[in-house]
Amino acid sequence: FDYHNMLVGQYHMGDVAFVRYTSLNNAHSMYWKASKNFADGVSHHMKDCVFANDPSDSYGQLQVLGPSGPFTFRFTNNTFLGSPVGSAALNAGQHCGLVGAGGPCDVQYSLEGINWDGIDPQAQRIRFGINSVDAGMVLPIF
Questions:
Q1: How far apart are CA 68 and CA 106, in angstroms?
Q2: Range of lowest pLDDT (34-43, 49-58, 115-124, 133-142)
Q3: pTM to 2 decimals?
Q4: Do residues 89 and 53 make contact, with C-beta atoms less than 8 angstroms apart?
Q5: Is 75 in a helix, a strand, or coil?
Q6: Is 77 helix (H, G, I), strand (E, B) or coil?
Q7: How far apart are CA 54 and CA 84, in angstroms?
Q8: Fewer CB near the terminus (10 Å): N or C of the chain?
Q9: What is the pLDDT of residues 92-129, one digit of tens each?
Q10: Which residue spans within 9-102 are E strands per DSSP?
Q11: Do residues 100 and 11 lie in contact, with contact meaning Cβ atoms separated by under 8 Å?
Q12: Nearest to 35 by CA among 110, 133, 103, 114
């Protein structure tokens, strides 16, 4: 559980799963630059998580800044609630192409059972490349 934090997450991390994680009114619901496929071949990077933002609280916004790299990012049974939504609820490729970040920029996002019902229907749900260099011909895949 994280509440009212600026940067929630990590730069590089592999073989660690966030299960039943809750993010409430954070500046970044999750900040993650690079990862890899799990060694066990079955685990999910984020599963059964809730990303929430109470609009009556002046701090925070909904925006998962997700990783990049040559792997499949498994994002399963997660829920987005509240407002405001930042650049998008789910942003793929945080800092992709920059020094120290995930690369190449061709991560595949496997989205299963994502509940977007709790956010404004006009809010952007997905964004390709966030705070990254021009990916050229290679972009994240959803």
A1: 7
A2: 133-142
A3: 0.91
A4: no
A5: strand
A6: coil
A7: 8
A8: N
A9: 888 777 766 666 777 899 999 999 999 999 999 998 87
A10: 9-12, 18-19, 22-24, 30-34, 46-47, 50-53, 62-65, 72-76, 79-82, 85-94
A11: yes
A12: 103
